[in-house]
Amino acid sequence: MHSLHYTDSSRVLIPESKKTRILKTSNQEIRKIATSEWLPLVEIETLVVVVVVVVVVVVGVVEAVVVVVVVLMIVAIVVVVVVVVVVVVVVVVVVVVVVVVVIVVVVVVVVVVVVVLAVAVVVVVVVVVEVVVVVVVLVVAIVVVVVVVVVVVLAVAVVEVVVKVVVVVVVLVVAIVVVVVVVVVVVVVVVVVVLVVVVVVTLVGILIVVVLVLVILVALEQRQHNSSSNSSSNSSSSSSSKTAVVVVIVIVVVVVEVVVVVAVVVKTAVVLVVVVVVLLEVVVVELVVIVVVEVV
Hints:
Elements: H1 16-24, H2 27-226, H3 232-295
Helix pairs in contact: 2-3
């Protein structure tokens, strides 16, 4: 610090009055003045150094304490971890041992239960098989008896039904034959009678027409003889025309009679066919009803 330039105003804070006085003094005085002026600064610097040393010591002590605390904490943590690990290992071992014991006990119990159940199942199966055999034998015997009885009953019923059906069929056939014969005979008789009546009526009509035609011709001849005043040509032409008219009338009357006869015959035949069909239907229905009643 004594090697500093004390006149340097940038490094030393000296009042202006003192600066002037220092410049006017000698080097010795400058040294005295400087020594007397800078003594408090040296003390402050020493105090600062002491404070710094104290702070450093305190910091070192604190760091030492912190290191010790950290070491102690690490040791404590290690101890705790070791203790926890030991406890966990012990607990795990105990749990494993307990679990193994429980598993062994459960396995033993299960084996015993399975053996007991197997024995019980075997006994039950044997009993059930015996019961099933007995039941099957009884059921087979009952079924055989029932089948035999049903077959016998059905055979008897079938024989009775067949006999009834045969009898009814024979009766039906005979009745149908009789009815058909009777209906055919009646139809033939009716047709013959109708045809005879129609033929007689037709012949009578034709005779009447012929008689009327003859009467008309005679009348015309008589009239012709009476009218002799007419010329021969006119009389011949009129007589021929009258004869033609009479012939046409006769033909028309005969055709009408024949048509009427045919219509009557067709109508009679249709009516007879309808009657026959209705009778046959009635007979068949009655016979079917009889058969059903007999079978039931």
